Amino acid sequence: MAREPEGTAVALSDPGPGPRPAPPAGPAAGDRTVLLTLRALDTGPRGLTEAEAGRRLARHGPNTLPTARHISLPARFWHSLRDPFTAVLFCLGLVSAVVSAWGTACVILALVVVSCALRAHGEHRADRAGAGLRELVAGTATVRRRDRADAEPRTREIPVDDLVPGDVVRLAPGDLVPADLRLLKAHGLTVQQAALTGESAPAAKRPADAPAAGDTAHLCFQGSSVASGGGTGVVVASGADTRFAAVRGTGRGRDAERAPGGADPAPLSAFDRSVHGISWTLIRFMLITPPLVLMANAALRGRGLETLPFAVAVAVGLTPEMLPVIVTTCLARGAALLARGHGVIVRRLPALHDLGAVDVLCVDKTGTLTRDRPVVDTGRTDPEALHWAAVSAWWTLQAAELPHPDPLDGALLDGADLDRVEAYDPVDALPFDPVRRLATAVVREPGALGTHLLVVKGAVEEVVERCAFDDPADRAGLLARATEAAGEGVRLLAVGTARRPARARGHTPADERGLTFRGLVAFHDALADTAHDAVRALAGRGVTVKVLTGDHPATAARACRDLGIDPGEVATGARTADLGDRELAELAARTTVFARCAPADKARVVAALRRAGHTVGFLGDGVNDLPALRAADVGVCPRDGVDVAREDADVVLAEKDLTAIGHAVDAGRHSSANIASYLRITLSSNLGNVIAMLAAGLLLPFLPMLPAQVLVQNLCSDGAQLALAHDRPDPAALRRPTVLRPRAFLRSLTGFGVLGALADLTTFGVLAWCLPGALDLGDQEGFHAGWFTENLLTQALVMLLLRTGRRAAEGRTPRPVRGAATALAAVGVLLPLTPLGPPLGMTGLPLVYYPLLAAVLALYAAALVALRRRMPQLPDPARP
Question: Can you give the pLDDT at residue 769?
Fold first, then answer.
């Protein structure tokens, strides 16, 4: 099947009665006769030779869109620096360098480099995995080529990238038009070109030797897909010269334009809102902390700029320096596990968080909830009608030389006895015509001489009108039956036959009269194998599924009912087009099914849901889904979707299966819960340390902690907290959408931060009792060592007790988290005793300090557990 080349497209809205986009210049202009077009391209109906095709490929380049290019690792690294929190850390590092705090500056800048490198590497790896999926579904086109100039042409499949102007291409139902084509032959050909014109209905295409000015019915453009029929055309433009490349523009990726139709940019994604909100909240605290420290020390202790390194260290102490690294590590690990375990490729790492936050998932019906092709409903089908309909489908397919049947014909052939169908001799065919809505096969029955049998199938109204009935009430009854079935979501096909004298010049549509009615064939959309269980599982995760489809309202409603979804009131695209943004948001909130939706209608519904405060995912696979993919918080596409949809999607599925979406949602929530664990733990600890540090700085005649000690403490604790990326949150934390909310963090960290500050101040009292000179200039090293040890031990406790979804030490702590907490505690106890202690301004402590410290830690742990139990209403930062 032909597939379109890689790239990202911008779907245009319907231009209405105004001028259409101008056809590409040159041979694709379409105003020449067929002969002049073939001459200009130096080709013919027999196609190019392989040697000539190779020369043209070298001259014109591959048939790919110009913006489908590889993004280098340095470019991704530079893009990562634009994160606001990373930028502030970078500025803190520069300030530290200015005040000659070289150790602080080097470590902060190293953290910035590590964070950006991890994020760039993760996205680069995702792109490589996506490239591997593209190779698995490499686009091909059916072309006619010759080995030599005097050889007969051969029809074969070649990669779409190898198409060149002058190639002769065959089209079949379901194919994507691989380049701009001038039709040479067509049989009932209709194409879906919504990505170019915004028209939701398929456009009829036909050859024309001398087309009228402005007429494009004889041209098929790249970016469109074959809805029905088939044909043969010559490539008149490829790659960057196609109309598709012209209208999609250059340098405009998914991040540059998320709003449909060039409208105002869509709101920030859930991840952007969360991280930006938390970052700017912390940035405000960081900016006001150094001036407060400087002013307090100058007023109470008479210290001047010599306390600037300490003030910077306090700001750094409040800052979760590893936030970019933790976020990137959690998301990258979740993305890697998804790719290995479920074949889900996360192309944009923040999209994994957005998946965890999704509370509304918008999907198309066909291929997602139902299979890609209908099946015969044997309970409503006349067996004789099924046989004759299959005869018409089979011999029309053979006579028209179509390589593949359309979905309805495929269902007929699957349900019929092909041995009986093939018992006839083919004569001629009148392929499906979207105007007359009929398809006719002309066959010769075995032993029947001098007569031909016309087997006509098509829309019920058209076939019944051409049939002869003894009682007019029979005709009215059949039409009423068809109307009733349509209301129940059942599609009907009528079949009639007629014998005509054999004629050499063939038969015409005028012979489709006086038919004998043979019966009705009913079709229904068979549910996808995993759809029912997947929809129920998503509902259990707090995700509401909404259906946005171009199908008939009754058909969409029936599929929902079969899945156990109450469709309620079904809205149509025509209705949504007349609503304002506020009215549409109210309708979208209470409506499950939107039918007869054009591409722009889908995008408007998604945007309305986002404006109402929902985090919206959209699953689509066609060019007509591009506006909605861009409008959603996270766009999802299966790997067999069209190339432009895959390139625009944030997440690519190995299969078009809602079960894979469920796995991706779980992975996103898992990653978000671990990020929330880090933020709760580090912010609570840091706030307590900063409160204690400010109090001690005002009460003590020396700095309560040297800048180097602050730096080493933060480096050890943040390094240990990297293990939280391997945590296993409580299953209860995965049952609802997870969004990192700044206000919830501020409320949750205050109580635990104050509790940590009380533990620190209690430790000061213990140190004053154990070390008589600890609170004056006589034993600074002992005070620094005692507080350093207590700080790391309390942070180890917090790691174990404040994990997301845990109220105490519930459940079994994963080995990486246990190991990291143990290592952190060991460093806190042993580092002052090692040769590294004196250079850092620390010395050994008396043995009596340790049992007293253990008592303080035991009280602190008990208080932590009690506070969590006494505050069940405490908002989880990762909850909506």
Answer: 81
